[in-house]
Amino acid sequence: MKLFIDTGHLPDIEALVPLGIIDGITTNPTLLAKEKGDPREILKKICELVKGPVSAEVVSTEAQAMIKEGRELARIDPYIVVKVPFTRDGVKACKALSSEGTKVNVTLIFSPTQALLAAKVGASYCSPFVGRLDDIATSGMQLIQEIVEIYANYPIKTEILVASTRGPMHIVEAARMGADICTCPPAVIDSLFNHPLTDIGLKKFLADWEKAQAAATR
Ligand code: E4P
User: Fold this and answer.
1) What pTM was computed for the model?
2) Which of 83, 95, 157, 204 is catalytic?
3) What are the pLDDT digits (tens) for 146-157?
């Protein structure tokens, strides 16, 4: 399963990419609004750092304007994936942009029918939001299971990009279900590393080694 970082914050990307575990980045207007500077320049720098798919979301809401904005975003860098919200206009824009070879991520997916329609219009990625469903007492991971099952019935190329993840269990469950990608806030990526037994075990290995070295030089 691929791991994306859900951020527009360059220092976080610079810290995590060298670990070799990051396959791409997702941004959204909320994330980019938190950053200082020209969002297009930030997106360009992100593409240069990650050298993988970088989702950049349109803020237009009417299909023709979305297509125009999507084309402009795609010109920033070949790694840009144009993100459109799942609306009727977004679906139209996805069809047009994907037909001309631009990769599209259809975002704000909250139901299996929306995921099915995103695949029909050639989305490269569909982004179901698990955390926001959990927030309203509806199982986000149940939605992922349903989309995995539906996509497996057909020769669908759209990748399931699990979004709005809030903790390591979302990542574990997504991987067990066979989702293609999880996009995670930096703190969630950090949480994937932690296990107290690793820390205790390493401390003991190093202490034992030092003891043996000291004995050998006595
Ligand atoms: C996905 O691409 C979105 O940017 C994101 O995962 C939204 O997450 P949130 O619900 O934590 O805002």
Assistant:
1) 0.96
2) 83
3) 999 999 999 999
